[in-house]
User: What shape does this take?
Amino acid sequence: MSACPKVLIAAFLILTMTGAVAQAYTIPDKQIDRRRIFWGSPTDFEKPGKVEYGKVVKATPEYKEVYKKKVERGSGKYWLLMSRASDRAVRAIIRFGEKSDYDLIAQAGYLGSLDPAIPDDDVTDRVLKMLKEQEKDPDEAEE
Assistant: This one.
């Protein structure tokens, strides 16, 4: 056997043993819930992340205004601010997805509830950091 095939076999074995070979995932059609997927394709992904959506919403300036000013729940102003908070949170999650190496980001708990469950990384803190950076530089948020 020549040296070239030996090198390829050795490289494959090393990658396999160290877990460096990426595993592709697919969510079965019957289990896809697009309301719980913020970024990526549920039918072909390798590096999934999860985000605690409620935490991201609560970190937005709009939610903080509702809380600080005690805006009455159910009022027009309440719903307007909450809608803006939700939109800002989703934009931050999507922006994180675009700038990271995660190819699927879903609501926390969703991927783990599937059959079979899909392992994911919690990216909530990283999304929150990005949201804070965007508050400091509003021009960045509009890219």
